[in-house]
Amino acid sequence: MPEGSTLIRGDRVYELIQFHFHTPSEHHVAGKSFPMEVHFVHKDTDRDTLGVLGVFLTPGATNAGFAGLAEAFPMRLGEEIAVDEVDPNGLLPASFGYWTYEGSLTTPPCTENGDWMVTMEPVQVGAADIKRFTSLYPSNARPIHSPNRRFILGLS
């Protein structure tokens, strides 16, 4: 990602290093999953920790940013496609109320140094674009785990 793509939370500044998608969502709200979730993975500029912003994706209106990515999805698993420019801002909700907790990353090696922020408001993307992703990755989500004494805080 280009330099300057940052997330600021309190006195902490995180640089965006990558983003990726999971289907179904890796977080649940009141026991409900979502068709997809995007994770924006950030590196704390002062500490050896990561900050991950999770955003739920639901079928609805076409989202130009996601539709542009979906057009570039490969036709077969394992095929690599170069994408010139991606603006991840189109995958962010209008409001930034979020839940937060400290936990592990959801991809191996599942490191326990993650500051999680999961937005309360989902973002709509085209149902056909979700289907294009799920045709390649029908399920690439880590199973839901118990909070294990983690406090989940809601911030508006």
How would you characterize this protein structure?
- The chain is mostly beta strands.
- It has a single domain (6-155), classed as Alpha carbonic anhydrase (Carbonic Anhydrase II, Roll).
- It has two helices and eight strands, in the order E-E-E-E-H-E-E-E-H-E.
- Strands 1, 2, 3, 4, 5, 6, 7 and 8 form an eight-stranded mixed β-sheet that branches.
- A hairpin with a 2-residue loop joins strand 1 and strand 2.
- The radius of gyration is 15 Å and the shape is globular.
- The two termini are 27 Å apart.
For the largest beta-sheet, the strand count, sense and barrel status come to: 8 strands, mixed
Q: What Rg, in angstroms, do the CA atoms define?
A: 15 Å
The quaternary state of the protein chains shown equals single chain
Q: Count of helical segments?
A: 2
Question: How are the elements arranged and paired?
Answer:
Layout (H helix, E strand, L loop, with lengths): L5 E4 L2 E11 L13 E9 L5 E11 L3 H9 L25 E6 L10 E6 L3 E4 H10 L16 E3 L1
Parallel strand pairs: 4-6, 4-7
Antiparallel strand pairs: 1-2, 2-3, 3-4, 5-6, 5-8
Helix pairs in contact: 1-2
What is shown here, in short?
This protein has 156 residues and is mainly β. The chain is 12% helix and 35% strand.
Q: What labels would you give this structure?
A:
12% helix; single chain; 8 strands; Carbonic Anhydrase II; mainly beta; 2 helices; 8-stranded mixed sheet; 156 residues
